[in-house]
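Model: You mentioned two targets. I'll fold them one after the other.
Researcher: Yes, keep them separate.
Model: Target one:
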Amino acid sequence: MSLDNVFGQVPDPSAYSFPDYALPQGEPVRPVAVTAAELDSLLDLYERFAAVDPTGIDSNPFLRATSEFLEQTVGTTLERPDERLHDDIATMLSEFAEDLGSERLGVVDVTPAHFRTLYFFLTSCKAYHVAPHIQFSPDEGAVETLYTVFQRVVDQDVYRRSR
């Protein structure tokens, strides 16, 4: 499947809302099957994604110097807007890897926080891909794998309230 086809299936962030969950205590867990090959594909996609600099701070010394001056003068922190997402994705993939262990196929636990992270990872990959100044061209298979894992979580209605 081409990138345009996969990204065409991604829910639009302006119209998408996360579901309500019926379990009131803590975050419910959605077990989904993941293969080692799928996890490897997601890890490779994440490495390519994390290497992208959408702000230009890393590649533009003038912008970096201006930002650092602003940080020192005003006291604001210099943080790329995607750094928190990178941390969330890395944590999620680490937890998936721990759940999977060394098995070729296993069940990983997906909480609502992981569900949101999968969605934001998917939409951010799409945003990077369509932005002409970034030129992010991820592997089609890896993006399809990300979408497949996301869809496995979405397809489970166990924890949703009936509408």
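Model: Target two:
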Amino acid sequence: MLQAYFESVKYVGHLLPISFLRIFLGYFYMDLAIKDWKQFLLGVGGYADVFVEALNKNHIPPWFRLLLGEQIIPYWQTVAFFLIGLQLIVAISYIIGYCVRPVSILAVVLCIAYLLIFSAEQEIFFKLLIACHLVLAWVGAGRCLGIDYYFYKTRRGVWW
């Protein structure tokens, strides 16, 4: 498998710049998960305040406002733990290059949730992140400098 990792640059080298984007996004999500975990442990200024502030936003659809008020805010600790876990899954998958396509679709859903929760000033940033995740899913960015090339070579399929 280690040979396939280095062999991937030879055969799928045209994906090298996109694999650097994948690794950078993995580092970004790892850093975000570590920062959010520290805020989650403190409990002050973390997700609880963000969820309560999101109820006062005008750009939130009514169905999401209802979901926020009845399901997310009463169980904010569970939801925060779930969001941090999703960030870690995305980070590890992007860094090692394993199952990049399904995880990038998961990251798009995570970015859409962040787009609904956070302020309108960060809207362009989250839309850019959604575009990056869709590009990673489209080209199968785990095939270059990642473990996905080994599975792509042995078992062709949609996931690799």
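Researcher: Noted. Anything on target two?
Model: DSSP finds eight helices and no strands in the chain.
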